[in-house]
Design goal:
- The structure is a homodimer of 344-residue chains.
- Chain A is α/β, with parallel strands linked by helices and 344 residues long.
- Chain A has helices at residues 20-34, 61-64, 69-83, 119-126, 138-142, 184-194, 209-216, 233-242, 258-265, 278-281, 294-302, 309-319, 322-343, and strands spanning 2-6, 38-43, 52-55, 89-92, 109-112, 132-135, 149-152, 172-177, 198-203, 225-229, 245-248, 270-273, 288-291.
- In chain A, helix 7 (209-216) links the parallel strand 9 and strand 10 (225-229).
- In chain A, helix 1 crosses helix 13, helix 6 crosses helix 11 (294-302) and helix 9 (258-265) crosses helix 12.
- At the A-B interface, helix 3, helix 4 and helix 7 of A face helix 3, helix 4 and helix 7 of B.
Chain lengths: 344, 344
């Protein structure tokens, strides 16, 4: 098949450090190329791929620090509009940026929703029943009745890149984008409450620099609470596999949370707020704990040794592999194209 | 003429407090209605107009605090796309949101650019030579060669709503959106350096709450440096007319700066950084001072009594009235429609 993959432009594909969506787009793209498809990746020029790359802007938008990043997305869809006849199917990962163009683009569009669905998005997407929306969890799908979801496909990862470790070191891990919604301060408080060492890893966006400087940094002592900044893939895997537990005190209906399966893949249990899709990813008391607040999270930290690290790994191997994910997308593309053919 | 005015959705039209663009859109809309046109205003439901209102979202986006405000803009252009046959001409004020739709909309589009033109915007707009772009200053127009600017039209205000005051009180004024680019901290430093009283008025956006709390607020003592928050139109005019001088230490190429003419209309001189269109709005040494840095701004404050407040008022009466502005837009609409007719 001639497939266009449309990546968000914020972060290179694959990401240099943080970037769940971009990691998924990269893995999916490379695997589709391996399977013999003609894949074109729309992304920024600092991306690396074995597919054909259509570079929309030289640098990814967080790095380029554009005043009006929206303009770059418009440039991308202009380009897609021009090139549309070169594709059998378009797989989009940019969500709300796409919808309006869908009317004017002929090949069928598959759109994976990577973010929570807010009311304004739901209203918008309802206007575009032609787009084939894919949910990344049952929870996400349920949250937005009326949207043309044709499939739920869990994210999957290349297990061989996440070595299993049964003997972790003695620290807790928090790793994400540094924003209030991802709960770095809650993680710190839990670590202090339980007397545990905590490593914090993450990138700081421009709009959250003051948040980091004034609210998070004063809580970091460099000993019990350590900050290691944003890290690359290899370092990230090291952090995951050596952690005793991964803390995920999120405050939004996370539709998936790639870090959760990354952590479990290396054998590290996850203690997360019971939000969004967490109960689909984590088996409570088996691969981690689902908790409601800081008190509960602190109690869970104390009993994390009860969790079998092997069970964590097994769950990912069973439900969340890259192969599984790509099989499903490939099948979906074929179904859509077949349906389209029959309609003609 | 059947005219659609497309307002940005961030702020009600007219604004409850801060909002230069929304004030212009409101004045323009009301004046066009008065002149007998059939005007339709696309804006949020908390707007007030004598035109027909198409409410896109119940509350304006800053007030509604949407997670994905972009979705509301997409909903608006979907609506415009549906209703397009009802209009002879579309006057848009949303800049980069519009461009991609312009291909699929039949009536001619006039697009006034209210913001600085960054490289990414320039690249985008060059792809849409069908849109009739209007610059709000010569400086703005010059900054973006290659864009289809068909006219430069200065903003204008209803002079009768800005009473002239020749006897100000003894304070300096800073009034804007509280962001680093608008220079509230610089204004405070100038006030402290010159021993003058300063009133700061402005709204605080969510993303700048920490900036305000940690960087600006500690400098406010409630006596020499006073903060009065965001104010409505009447209170704003009071603040302007009683000020000894208005400080505008901006750090971006401001394409116009409505506050500058609002201040001068009441007789209050403006001391501004020599950025963007400032030299087109302010007559140096006559209606205020154009300065390069804090030192110069402090020196200018000391000689502000040399400025004739009457000269400030006269300049606005001569160059920047609402009547003048609407005359020009009306003439432009007619020219475009005539040209379109001739081409058919």
């Amino acid at each position: 098949m001639r497939i266009a993959q449309i990546a968000p432009l914020w972060i290179p594909v694959p990401p240099y450090t943080y970037g769940g969506t971009e990691l998924i787009v990269s893995w999916l793209t490379e695997e589709l190329v391996k399977r013999g498809h003609q894949v074109t990746l729309f992304a920024t020029g600092d991306s690396k791929t074995s597919a054909r790359l259509v570079p929309i802007w030289p640098k990814s938008l967080w790095r380029a620090n554009l005043s009006i990043p929206h303009a770059a997305f418009s440039l991308m869809y202009e380009k897609l509009f021009e090139m549309q006849d070169e594709f059998d199917i378009i797989h989009d990962h940019c969500e709300f940026y796409t919808a309006p163009y869908s009317k004017f683009i002929k090949p069928p569009i598959v759109s994976t929703i990577h973010h929570p669905l807010y009311e304004e998005i739901i209203q918008l997407f309802k206007k575009f029943p032609k787009i084939n929306y894919v949910a990344v969890s049952k929870n996400q799908r349920k949250s937005a009745p009326g949207i043309n979801f044709i499939k739920t496909i869990y994210h999957g990862l290349p297990l061989q890149n996440y070595p299993f470790n049964k003997n972790p070191k003695d620290y807790l891990l928090w790793l994400s984008k540094i924003t209030p919604q991802k709960g770095p301060i809650e993680a710190i408080e839990v670590a202090k409450k339980t007397g545990q060492k905590l490593i914090i890893s993450g990138n700081i966006l421009k709009e959250y620099r003051d948040y980091f400087e004034y609210r998070v940094q004063p809580l970091i002592d460099g000993e019990q609470i350590q900050f290691v900044g944003a890290v690359n893939f290899e370092k990230k895997v090291e952090l995951f596999k050596n952690a005793k537990a991964f803390l995920y005190p999120i405050r939004r209906p996370e539709p998936f949370g790639l870090v959760v399966i990354e952590s479990m893949a290396t054998g590290t249990p996850v203690i997360a707020h019971k939000e969004g899709a967490m109960s689909e990813l984590i088996k409570n008391n088996k691969t981690g704990f689902l908790v409601s607040d800081q008190e509960e999270m602190a109690r869970a930290v104390k009993k994390v040794n009860q969790i079998s690290r092997f069970a964590c790994r097994s769950l990912v191997a069973k439900k969340f592999t890259l192969e599984k994910m790509v099989n499903k997308y490939e099948a979906l593309y074929r179904t859509i194209l077949k349906k389209q053919k029959n309609e003609k």
